[in-house]
Amino acid sequence: MDVEALAENRISFDDFEEVDIRVGRIESAAPIEDSDKLARLEVDVGIETRQVVAGIKQLHDLDELPGTKVVLLANMETAELFGYESNGMVLAAGEEADLLTTHGDAEPGTKIR
Amino acid sequence: MDVEALAENRISFDDFEEVDIRVGRIESAAPIEDSDKLARLEVDVGIETRQVVAGIKQLHDLDELPGTKVVLLANMETAELFGYESNGMVLAAGEEADLLTTHGDAEPGTKIR
Questions:
Q1: Is residue A1 part of a domain?
Q2: For residues A82 and B97, what is the distance between their CA atoms, to the nearest angstrom?
Q3: Residue A108 belongs to a domain
Q4: Collapsing DSSP states into helix, strand and coil, what is residue B51?
Q5: What CATH number has the domain bearing residue B39?
Q6: Is A104 part of the contact surface with chain B (CB cutoff 8 Å)?
Q7: Do A104 and B96 touch (CB under 8 A)?
Q8: Which residues of A touch B13 (CB under 8 A)?
Q9: B89 touches chain A (CB under 8 A)
C-alpha cells in the first residue's frame, strides 16, 4: 500500500479543539440519482439528526447502512450538492471509504478527542 | 447521557486538511509508573512507529491492547510527559475513552478524511 507522507506541520491541542468530531449513527441512506458517487445520509448526532452527502454510493451497500455507527466531522461548513444540503462529513479511511467507528458502545453525540 | 453542545464555529475542508488523522495499530502498551492515568503506547502508523502517551491506564486493560487498531491524530505537537515524548494522540470517544477504529480492514498509515 502507498502511504501518503505524514504532515510536516504540527497542530496544538487547542487547534484540534476547533474540530468537532462526534459519534453518529446512520438512520437512512439513499442514492442521489443524478450523481455517480454521492449518497444522501441522515445521521443521528445525539442532539439532532443531520443530512450529510457522502461519496460512498459505489463503495457501500446503502441498504446495509441504517443503524451503522459512524464518526462525523460535525462542524464542517455546510455545502449544497446536487440540490441537497450537506451538514457534516462522515469520516472514512482511504479510497475504499472504510468508515470509522468505535471499539465500544459510545452513543451518538459523544465527543471525540 | 449529557451531550456537549455542538460547535458553533464551522471549518472548511481546507482547514480540516491541516489535521492529519491516520489508522494505526498498537504494538505495545505499558503503564507509566509515576502517573495514575497515563500509559505509554507504541503505535504503528504505516511508515513509522510512534511513541504516544495516552490517558487510558485505568480505562483499558493494557495487556489486551497490542494488535488493536486505533485512529491517531498524527500531526499533533510533540509533548513530554513524565519524561516520555508523546508524538501523536490516540482518538477516543467520551470519558470512557472508547477507542476509534474502522469497520473494515484499512491498514496502518491509511489517511482519514
A1: no
A2: 38
A3: yes
A4: strand
A5: 2.40.50.140
A6: yes
A7: yes
A8: 76-77, 89
A9: yes
Secondary structure (DSSP) of B9-37: S-B-HHHHHTS-EEEEEEEEEEE-TT-SS
Q: Given a cut of 60, is residue A66 above it in pLDDT? A: yes
Give the pLDDT of chain B (113 residues) as one tens digit per residue.
578 899 989 999 999 999 999 999 999 999 999 999 999 999 999 999 999 999 999 999 999 999 999 999 999 999 999 999 999 999 999 999 999 999 999 999 999 99
- Domain span including residue B66: 20-112
Q: Total structural domains in chain A?
A: 1
The answer as to whether B55 is a domain residue is yes
ipTM reported for the complex, 2 dp = 0.95
Q: Cα B30–B31–B33 angle (5° rounding)?
A: 135
What pLDDT does residue A1 have? 56
| Contacts with A, B 57-86, CB within 8 Å | 68, 71, 73-78
Q: Is residue B30, in this structure, part of any structural domain at all? A: yes
